[in-house]
Each structure stands twice: as structure tokens, then as C-alpha cells.
Design brief:
Blueprint (H helix, E strand, L loop, with lengths): L2 E7 L3 H20 L8 E6 L6 H11 L3 E5 L6 H12 L5 E4 L10 H10 L4 E6 L7 H16 L8 E8 H7 L9 H8 L3 E6 L13 H13 L4 H31 L6 H34 L11
Parallel strand pairs: 1-2, 1-4, 2-3, 5-7
Antiparallel strand pairs: 4-6, 5-6
Helix pairs in contact: 1-2, 9-10
The structure holds uridine-5'-diphosphate and magnesium ion.
The site of uridine-5'-diphosphate (UDP) has 16 residues, from β1 and α3.
């Protein structure tokens, strides 16, 4: 089988040599034992780096035909760099593996990916077995994020980042998702086909620092929810409806206080009634408008309505 590896890189000059060295050794042994073909390759995608990343990638390609490079015109972000690599190369390999440049994901797992591919799986997820090397904060926020996602009805693989194998068939499926705010790990389960997971321990970044500061991480998480679920809009409708129903009871109570107890000051009843009754109607109306916006949102994604596996 012809295997391709796609590695998005943003200012990674500190790790690239080490990454290259490790992959070179791995590929050599895999080619020797015939698990992958000689024309397998590794492609670095330079996501508009400001350091020497591209020069280093260029020197790799001159050094060894195993290496390829793609340079983006500016920094488009991790997900877009990844999709650029996958889409450019999907027709030149039987399967592509995506991974980070920083060697945090154990590259020996690539052997398991290939094994699973040969067993007939089109999607193989790399799943982190333990996150003990991550900070407490990162672990807790990740946990909360997976819970929130499942509450919003989004199918996702916990503790899986963008370390995975996709067969050519799955890549052609992925190509049919034209949405712009792409959260790849949310889209992959929607492609279908046979899938499985392989487990590994995640290490620390070999060198350099994380290219995902907290702010980027938060917006990324927002993408992971807002691009897949209209549940937040539904919540508005439901809250509005509850306030609206409650307002009838509140109105009864206000009337009771005004006509039977006579303890109210002038003007209180009418003000209170408008606050609750109108408040409920307003929130509910926003929710109803939201329902339509949600439909526009889903339509505008132009997601494939089906993906065919086989025809006989
Ligand atoms: N990356 C990228 N473009 C960006 C940010 C990151 O291509 O704008 C790449 C980066 O070079 C690395 C991968 O995405 O290969 C994951 O980034 P990082 O390891 O910094 O994230 P973390 O592991 O800290 O979440
Ligand atoms: Mg990393």
C-alpha cells in the first residue's frame, strides 16, 4: 500500500529535524518489511510560518525523495492547513495519516494504523490512553468539552485529536464537506465507513511551544459546538416558552394581589404583567427566529446527504 503522512507545521523549526529523523527510520523499517510501498511519502504543510520552517522543508525534499512540501500563502490555521494537505494528496496515496509536527503523538502507532487499514478499516482514530502528561487544567477543560458536545447531540471520539488514518474512500467522503469553519474531528464520524481506534500514550512536545494558546483553544471549542449543533438555539425557544407559561401564573397572582388583597401600589400590576408576559413572548420569538436561522445554517453548509460505499 502507498501511505502518505500529512504534517501541518507552523513555526516548527525547533522540532522539524527530529521529526524527520524519527519518521525516516520508521519508514525505512516499514518499507523493508513490506508493510508500505517504496513510493510512500511524508508531506509537510507550511502554514505561513515566520521562521525557517519552509527552508528546512525544502532542504528535506532535496535530501530524500520521501519528503514533499506544500507552502500555504499565509497562516490559515491548523485545521485548514491539514485539510489542504489531505485534499492535495488524497489521490496520490491509498491512505493518509495526519499528525502534528511536535512528536507528541507516538509515531510507532503508525504501524497499527497501517495494520488496521489492511484489515479493512477506512477510518482509524488515534486515541490518547492517558492524559497524565497534560496539565490538570487542559484535562479538566477537555473533559468538560466532551461532555458538553455529547449534551448537544454531537457524535465525537473522546481523547482523539487529529492523529488518524483515512483511506482514499474516506478522504473522498471528507472532500464532500464544503463547510468553512471546519472542525475536522467532528466531521470524520459523519463520513461513515468502517472505523476503529488504536490507543497510545501522548508525550510532551519535543521542542518549541504550543501553537494553541488558550484563546485559540476556546474559539476552536466553540467551532466544535457551533458548527454541529443547533441545540443552543433550541434552548432559547424552550426557555422562552417556560417563561411564557409561567407568566400566566404570575398574572393570576398579580390579579389576586390587586383585587383581593388590595395591597398593591398603583401601576405595579400593569408593569409586572408586561415584564413577565412580554419577556416570555420575546425570548420565545427569538428562539423561533433561531429555528429558522438554524435551518439556513444547516442548508448553507451544503453537507452531502449521503455517501456511497459500494454499488453492485
Ligand atoms: N499548527 C498549524 N497552524 C497553526 C497552529 C498550529 O499548522 O496556526 C500546527 C502545529 O505546527 C502542530 C499542530 O498544528 O504541528 C498542533 O499544534 P500544537 O502542537 O502547538 O498544539 P497542541 O498539541 O499544543 O494542542
Ligand atoms: Mg502538540
Amino acid at each position: 500500500m502507498r501511505l502518505g503522512i500529512v504534517i501541518p507545521c507552523y513555526n516548527e523549526e525547533a522540532v522539524l529535524y527530529e521529526t524527520k529523523k524519527h519518521i525516516e527510520t520508521l519508514f525505512k523499517s516499514m518499507i523493508e518489511d513490506n508493510s508500505i510501498s517504496k513510493d510512500s511519502f511524508v508531506c509537510f504543510v507550511d502554514d505561513g510560518s515566520r521562521d525557517k520552517t519552509w527552508e528546512i522543508i525544502e532542504s528535506f525534499t532535496k535530501d530524500n525523495p520521501l519528503f514533499k512540501g506544500i507552502k500555504l500563502s499565509r497562516n490559515f490555521g491548523h485545521q485548514n492547513a491539514l485539510i489542504a494537505g489531505l485534499m492535495q494528496l488524497k489521490d496520490s496515496a491509498d491512505a493518509l495519516i495526519s499528525m502534528d509536527a511536535d512528536l507528541q503523538d507516538d509515531i510507532l502507532v503508525i504501524k497499527d494504523f497501517v495494520k488496521k487499514y489492511k484489515e479493512g478499516y477506512d477510518v482509524v482514530y488515534g486515541v490518547r490512553e492517558d492524559r497524565s502528561r497534560d496539565t490538570k487544567f487542559k484535562r479538566a477543560t477537555a473533559e468538560a468539552f466532551y461532555k458538553l458536545q455529547s449534551f448537544m447531540g454531537i457524535e465525537s471520539i473522546s481523547n482523539h485529536a487529529d492523529y488518524r488514518l483515512l483511506s482514499r474512500k474516506a478522504l473522498n467522503g471528507l472532500a464532500q464537506f464544503k463547510e468553512i469553519n471546519l472542525f475536522i474531528r467532528g466531521v470524520v464520524p459523519l463520513i461513515g465507513f468502517r472505523s476503529c481506534s488504536v490507543y497510545y500514550k501522548r508525550g510532551e512536545r519535543f521542542a518549541g511551544e504550543s501553537k494553541y494558546p488558550l484563546s485559540k483553544m476556546l474559539f476552536f471549542a466553540l467551532d466544535g459546538i457551533a458548527s454541529f449543533s443547533i441545540v443552543p438555539l433550541r434552548i432559547i425557544t424552550v426557555v422562552g416558552f417556560i417563561i411564557f407559561i409561567l407568566s400566566f401564573f404570575i398574572i393570576l397572582w398579580i390579579m389576586f394581589e390587586k383585587f383581593f388583597l388590595g395591597t398593591t401600589i398603583k401601576g405595579w400590576s400593569s408593569v409586572m404583567i408586561s415584564i413577565y408576559f412580554m419577556g416570555g413572548i420575546q425570548v420565545m420569538s427569538i428562539g423561533i427566529i433561531g429555528e429558522y436561522i438554524g435551518r439556513i445554517f444547516q442548508q448553507s453548509k451544503g453537507r452531502p446527504r449521503y455517501i456511497i460505499d459500494k454499488e453492485i
